[in-house]
Amino acid sequence: MKTIAVLTSGGDAPGMNACIRAVVRTACEKGMNIYGINRGYNGLMEDDMFEMDLRTVSDIIDRGGTVLHSARSLNFKTEEGMQAAIETCQRRGIEGIVVIGGDGSFRGARDLSLRGIPCIGVPGTIDNDIACTDYTIGFDTCLNTIMQTVDRVRDTSESHDRCTVVEVMGRSAGYLALEGGIAVGATYIIVPEKPYDLADVIARMKKTLKTGKRHFVIVVAEGIGGVANLAKRIEEETGVECRSTILGHIQRGGSPTVRDRVMASIMGNKAVKLLMDGIGNRVIAVKDDKIVDYDIFEALQMKKSLNDEYYQIAHEISI
Ligand code: ADP
Predict the structure, then answer these.
(1) N or C: which end of the chain has fewer CB within 10 A?
(2) How far is residue 4's CA from residue 38's CA, in Å, rounded to a whole number?
(3) DSSP-H helix ranges across the chain
(4) Which tens digits make up the pLDDT trace of 239-295?
(5) Measured from the CB, is residue 115 less than 6 Å from ligand 1?
(6) Mutation test of ligand 1: which of 77, 99, 122 has the most ligand atoms closer than 8 Å to its C-beta?
(7) What span, in angstroms and rounded, lies between the C-alpha atoms of 25 and 32?
(8) From ligand 1's centre to the CA of 40, what distance in Å?
(9) What is the pTM of this model?
(10) What is the C-alpha to C-alpha distance for residues 228 and 245, in angstroms, rounded to an integer?
(11) Which residue owns the Cα nearest ligand 1 atom 19?
């Protein structure tokens, strides 16, 4: 392949820029032309792109967000949208695309691959909810943001002998809540994957009150929601003053951590090498600390579950 392109799609995640940088630098080093497509699949349909070179990706490795911008493009799911994207590729001579995003973006990459534009998916989402991979770009930075932010909440919770119920992101998955909850020493972690009983939360708090504990942090995944009501119920049942807080979009930003920069760089490099070998319709993944790649169809069929052992341990040590 002589000419390829890169785009970021779906929700943004810290580390996407490090990945774009690795893609562009690898392509240039291999003598390929590389386009940066703006606003995900929207830019592909509308031919909104620019030629990138070694210097267009200088000084972005440490920046959160994505310099290519991201979007959710409903029109791309239609046949007209898909045709417009293919026409752009033909006009520009684009022979392959690196798509950095989540499951939805991979579905788009699969559809493009089926129509003769080989695509490689790179997992980029703070939620770590992509089945085929143990790790997604942005997860570690987001966990660190959760840890640092909840540490601050803990300070004030401690001063006032309060309980704080904190909602963290993760869409319908509890990976951020589980690892974030362990990192902040949460008394209870509530995730969509595990049934929970308010009576159990109350009983745990009462038990720890007897041992001298005076303040609490309870971490709740976005997929559960209802933190204000939960806080009210806990206050009524335990007599401990209780507040709720939703961390929100603060969790998506910030300079990527070492782990995110390293993983993004390695995965971006690998994606371009696959395209260079004429291979498309693959997703880059991390499995047992190794970088591997899967067929997109297979990757989208895979299932992933929460780490039961971590969940169990979190409860054992939170008392
Ligand atoms: P993520 O990639 O983070 O999962 P989305 O689910 O919003 O985010 O998907 C990002 C974009 O990928 C969508 O806006 C759409 O353009 C494209 N996409 C999502 N699902 C499909 C699909 N089934 N077929 C084709 N394109 C899709």
Answers:
(1) C
(2) 14
(3) 16-29, 40-45, 79-92, 103-114, 139-159, 175-183, 198-210, 227-238, 258-276, 296-301, 308-316
(4) 999 999 999 999 999 999 999 999 999 999 999 999 999 999 999 999 999 999 999
(5) no
(6) 77
(7) 10
(8) 10
(9) 0.97
(10) 8
(11) 104
